[in-house]
Design brief:
Blueprint: H1 13-22, E1 27-30, E2 33-36, E3 44-50, H2 55-73, E4 78-84, H3 89-96, E5 102-103, H4 108-117, E6 125-129, H5 141-147, H6 156-171, H7 175-179, E7 186-189, E8 194-196, E9 204-210, H8 215-234, E10 239-245, H9 250-258, E11 263-264, H10 271-278, E12 286-290, E13 296-298, H11 301-308, H12 317-333, E14 337-338, E15 347-356, E16 363-370, E17 377-378
Parallel strand pairs: 3-4, 4-5, 9-10, 10-11
Antiparallel strand pairs: 1-2, 3-6, 7-8, 7-11, 9-12, 12-13, 14-15, 15-16, 16-17
Length: about 400
């Protein structure tokens, strides 16, 4: 859903109620019947512009229902008022059935006046009204998608507080604050075992953002499992991976995790969305590396694994520089061209992320002697006269 800024200014609640009264609207609708306008006096009001025919509106509405129910259960004096973009009353009624809040009675002329008054040019839009002038002037859709009920009271101060919390978690130092939340201090494994987040403190942790429906993720998962298993036997279990799933449903999540030897944030947990926001994940697969001190080491873990596999551990810039310097040194020690009796054409030295040697049929990395004519690859250790271990 596109995030956008609405140009309407926050206005006094009474101004909105006065507009309705001037149009002879005495009551608002609720699922239980009619409600007098006076019920909204003294409350924080948000105008929800939406339509039954709008797919993004129908996607966003359940998020707003959850926020509304949460805030009302806390005793928050909040009221949401639905203003329809529907073309007929049947669409209005069908859409309103899913809403626990109030609505302006269906009247296309009145709804158009309100859309123009608040300069609403796209939906869904959620416009806050307040008498104190402290509410943010932006449309609240993006803020609520990101933070849910924590976005309340929708002030600039609250928005800045939430951004500061995200920055603090991203900059790191406290793994448990990043991966756990109130009421859940554990991660889950593929066999449904619960592992305390505290057991990961002091380890290098990779946050793997991926989904089973995504073919590039499935391909990268294979590489990641190979590196993970290699490190499990060589680093005294100082490396752990945590899946941050972007699967479409719980069934996909279970299928995804069942193929993985590491842990995951529970699917039903909002922390998954929070981590995507905190680390600004725009595409998958992605791998964010958290160092033993709890601080973010790199957001380029996927590239490191793809290029260097387990050799990249502990996935720091200095380690990558060390690998690249070592590879350059090895490359300088190899001939640029060779002629080997195992192949009819001349072979040239080439840098390859990963390949299969056509002679020994084993996986190779980094350096290969390749044929420009027929795509033949030979591992340097398989070339006669070269004694090199890669």
């Amino acid at each position: 859903m596109e995030k956008h800024t609405n140009q309407a200014k926050c206005v006094d609640n009474n101004d909105f109620l006065t507009i309705l009264a001037s149009e002879d609207v005495e009551c608002l609708h609720s699922v239980k019947g009619k409600v007098p306008l006076s019920l909204c006096e003294g409350k924080t009001i948000c105008l929800f512009f939406s339509a039954n025919w709008c797919r993004p509106c129908k996607t966003f509405t359940p998020h707003l229902v959850q926020l509304y129910d949460t805030l009302r259960s806390r005793g928050t004096e909040l009221e949401i008022i639905f203003i329809s973009f529907d073309h007929d009353e049947n669409g209005f009624n069908e859409h309103f059935k899913s809403m626990p809040w109030l609505a302006v009675p269906f009247d296309e002329i009145l709804h158009k006046k309100l859309r123009n008054k608040y300069r609403v040019d796209r939906i869904p839009s959620l416009i806050p009204l307040a008498s104190d002038g402290k509410l943010i002037e932006e449309d609240l859709i993006g803020l609520i998608e990101d933070y849910g009920a924590e976005a309340y009271p929708f002030t600039r101060k609250r928005k800045e507080e939430l951004k500061a919390i995200d920055d603090s978690k991203r900059q790191g130092g406290k793994l448990e604050e990043l991966l756990a939340l109130e009421g859940r201090n554990y991660l889950v494994s593929g066999d449904h075992e619960k592992i305390l987040v505290s057991e990961l403190v002091g380890k290098t942790v990779g946050l793997y953002f991926g989904a089973h429906w995504c073919p590039p993720c499935r391909a990268f998962t294979t590489q990641l499992i190979e590196a993970y298993n290699e490190l499990a036997t060589s680093t005294d279990q100082c490396f752990e991976i945590v899946l941050v799933s972007t699967d479409r449903d719980h069934k996909e999540f279970d299928l995804n995790l069942s193929s993985m030897p590491w842990l995951a944030i529970p699917y039903e947990d909002r922390t998954r969305q929070d981590l995507c926001r905190i680390f600004n994940i725009k595409g998958i697969p992605a791998l964010v590396i958290i160092g033993p001190n709890g601080k973010t080491t790199s957001t380029s873990g996927k590239e490191m694994i793809s290029l260097y596999g387990a050799k990249a551990f502990p996935f720091t810039e200095s380690r990558i520089a060390e690998i690249e310097a070592y590879l350059r040194k090895e490359g300088d020690a190899l001939p640029q061209e060779v002629k080997d009796e195992k192949h009819e054409h001349e072979l040239k030295l080439d840098m390859a992320k990963a390949y299969v040697c056509d002679y020994c049929k084993k996986q190779g990395r980094f350096w290969a002697f390749s044929c420009d004519v027929c795509n033949y690859d030979l591992h340097p250790t398989c070339v006669e006269g070269i004694n090199l271990k890669l």
